[in-house]
Amino acid sequence: MAAEDSDTDVDLTWGVKIPMRDGVLLNATLYRPRATNGKLPALFRMNPYTPDGYHRQAMELARHGYAFAAVDVRGRGNSGGTFMPFFNDGQDGADVVEWLAKQPWSNGKVGMFGESQLGRAVWSVLKGAPPHLVSAAPLSPGYPLLFWKNILTPDLVQDLSMMAGVTNNANILGDDDFWLARFRELYLQHLPLRDFDRLAGFPSAPFQKFLDHPTQDAFWNSLVPDDAEYARMPQPLLSMTGQYDMHEEATIYVYRQHLRLARPEVTAQHYLVIGPWDHQSVAHPRREAGGLTFGPASIVMSTPVLLREWFDYTMRGAARPAFLQKRVAYYVIGAEEWRYADNLDDIMKRPRKLFLTSTGEAGDVFHSGRLATSAPVTAANGAAADRWTYDPLDTRPAEVDAETVSDVNTSQRYALNLYGERAVYHSEPFEKATEVIGNPRLSAWISMDVRDTDLDATLYLILANGTSVLLGQDYLRARYRHSQSKEELVEPGAVERYDFTFPFEARVMPRGSRLRLVVRSPNNIYWEKNYNSGGEVSRESGKDAHTAHLVLYHDAVHPSALELPAD
């Protein structure tokens, strides 16, 4: 029923039931301004969590003249049906759009926004092209495939535990001691990842279903627009991500797909914001991320205010938000300033190549190889190469003190890997402050004596005082080196090129700083352990283990190189 306090400026209605095309009723909490002049534009979010967390923003939007609906997704909260993360949001969201447009208080214009899982839902609804969806803002939406390059991590069960049942389980989700103990148990007992949901006490049909689809197949592709669906989208879009956002790659991927396939008059209204943020602070910017503190300019933009101004612009004919000076806004770390461009490609620096080289002993930071400016000239049979061993039964990495990792975000946890063999390379110190803008890339020529293993490339900035700053990581399961849609097991001993793409960087490298590149096989409690047998990884256990011996080549025939988009 509607709120009865005559002093309030917002009418709040609980328990609104929105019918879906199959008869299921979704529950919504509806906010509307009490005093209105005419009919209202409507905004909504598809919400797998409780709507209470968005109450403050909903009240502000209603006071600003919008109807706002916080909609519980199918099977969550007070909505009917069976919950399956992501897979019902597109069709159900399209039905919500049309229901809102037809209400007697509605002017027929509907907008949608959301971050993370809610941002993924925005793209799913855009895919269905509901006719009354006139504007959208997907924030940090996450990759169409849940895996890190087809690699699933056990903390997905932790995320799913938040949505077990119909209410939130925030205290269970946030109990790091519990989850660290379960991750260690899986790791130390060499259990298959398939067992982890039961091990954690949360048998999960979605988790098992996801494991049944380890490649980018039709199951996952059904979540995102195909070429024709991108082409027919008419809405102006606002995309947002951060340089420390674990979903940055996904945000930029769907942004590029839209720009490539949609009509020019539509892409001209697609704006992209890349801030100095991690995943949690895209929706509520802070000055801190990745262990760094940024300048005051990093928080001149408030995401809730920008969203409100965006919908004023696209749904009510107001002026374009002042912050969106051009179609791309990006923050340059080090320069501590926002810059603007008409197109993301316009700002990319031309890459310079840094070639990996060593005497064959690049095993740690004190005996590292080099990132050299000149290409190798030594023939393959006369050049040194770097080697490391990955033994899946080696559990010494689990001895890392849990307190060391309890206060860092997920993507940083994967970067720790404080123990294990690796190949390490350093650049010469930068002779002057150097801007890096774009995606660094690595091409590494590698052989192995197993049919499959996982690879991890990590790039750091080492300041003149020795401080290490994580720039980014990329992962690769060897069987997917050519395609994420089709596996191809490795021929043991074959030397092949493995390509890695690091996250977008917009940063000034200080004079005297240098780069550190680390290549290794991931082995930590947060990872889906690859036992290297070439079988179905999620079912592998310690009994399937094969030790992998890897060789990284850097000779005239196999010129492993880092491409750095820098002046």
Description:
- The strands form 4 sheets. Strands 13, 14, 15, 16, 18, 19, 20, 21, 23, 24 and 25 form an 11-stranded mixed sheet that branches. A 10-stranded mixed sheet has the order 1-2-4-3-5-6-7-8-11-12, sandwiched between helices. Strands 9-10 form a two-stranded antiparallel sheet.
- It has 3 domains: 10-146 and 226-347, Rossmann fold (3-Layer(aba) Sandwich), CATH 3.40.50.1820; 155-211, no CATH class; 351-565, Jelly Rolls (Sandwich), CATH 2.60.120.
- Mean pLDDT is 91; it is low at 1-7 and 401-416.
- With 567 residues, the chain is an alpha/beta fold.
- Helix 2 crosses helix 3 (117-128).
Topology:
Blueprint: E1 10-19, E2 25-33, E3 40-47, H1 55-63, E4 67-72, H2 89-101, E5 106-115, H3 117-128, E6 133-139, H4 155-161, H5 170-173, H6 176-188, H7 196-199, H8 205-211, H9 218-221, H10 227-231, E7 237-244, H11 248-261, H12 264-267, E8 270-278, E9 288-289, E10 292-293, H13 303-316, E11 328-332, E12 337-341, H14 344-347, E13 351-357, E14 369-372, E15 385-390, H15 402-405, H16 410-416, E16 422-427, E17 434-438, E18 441-448, E19 454-462, E20 468-477, E21 496-501, E22 505-509, E23 514-520, E24 548-553, E25 561-565
Parallel strand pairs: 3-4, 3-5, 5-6, 6-7, 7-8, 8-11, 14-16
Antiparallel strand pairs: 1-2, 2-4, 9-10, 11-12, 13-14, 13-25, 15-24, 16-23, 17-22, 18-21, 18-24, 18-25, 19-20, 19-23
